[in-house]
Specification:
By secondary structure, the protein is α/β, with parallel strands linked by helices. It has six helices and seven strands, in the order ααβαβαββαβαββ. It has a seven-stranded mixed sheet. Strand 6 (about 195-205) and strand 7 form a beta hairpin. The longest helix has 14 residues, at about 95-105.
């Protein structure tokens, strides 16, 4: 059994969205996120943790209980958990979660993976000192972001830290759904209980970008 509000992996029902409202990305593609993991690797599934996440972990950036929101097949969560931290990775893609759990068993890493809607993270019934969003924020359009940000706020402790790695709108060969610094700051502002401590240029590795796509790596504090 998972924590309250968490659905364990199972077969997709006749409703491919499992009763939840499709995200803007799903509405554009006409397919649920889970379909991205059918018939081969998804473009963002590089088979290893993102270099930016590895670097941050080496610098001691993760502390306490960690939530990986939109964990996919689990490479970032597995890397962080391998350092001895308590990690929960959540996603709506059941196929990705099954792959992540199999990796954890194969590698002997203690980590938890569970199905959860990014817009309803409060259903987890848990709080986290550190939250990682690697490639999720930029998939939501402007109308969806306030709900997602409120969902994040419901699971992060006061003075907790959120890290957001997202496609940047600056530089050549940007990824899909590029985000500006202004959009990040607008989403996470002091009026809704956040303080953007830093936004640094970085790269997101994908299967479609040999040298990675331009990215922002933001550190945001919950106040």
């Amino acid at each position: 059994m998972g924590a309250p509000g968490i659905e364990e992996s199972g077969n997709l029902s006749e409703d491919p969205f499992s009763g939840r409202r499709p995200t803007s990305h799903e509405r554009m593609s006409g397919l649920p996120w889970d379909a991205s993991y059918h018939g081969g690797l998804a473009p963002w599934d590089i088979g290893r943790p993102q270099p930016a996440v590895v670097r941050l972990a080496a610098e001691g950036g993760f502390a306490g209980a960690v939530l990986d929101a939109g964990c996919g097949t689990g490479e970032n969560a597995l890397h962080i958990a391998s350092l001895g931290l308590s990690v929960l990775g959540v996603d709506v893609a059941e196929t990705a979660l099954a792959i992540a759990r199999a990796k954890a068993v194969d590698r002997g890493i203690e980590v938890e993976f569970a199905a959860a809607d990014a817009f309803q993270l409060e259903r987890l019934g848990r709080k986290f000192e550190t939250v990682l969003d690697c490639g999720l924020f930029h998939t939501f359009d402007g109308d969806e972001r306030p709900e997602y940000v409120a969902s994040l706020a419901s699971v992060i402790v006061q003075d907790g830290t959120l890290y957001v790695l997202c496609f940047s709108d600056e530089g050549p060969d940007t990824g899909p759904h590029p985000i500006s610094q202004e959009e990040l700051r607008a989403a996470f502002n002091r009026s809704n209980g956040w303080d953007v401590a830093a936004i640094e240029p970085d790269r997101i590795q994908t299967r479609n970008h040999d040298a990675g796509a331009p990215a922002w790596f933001a550190k945001v504090k919950r106040i």
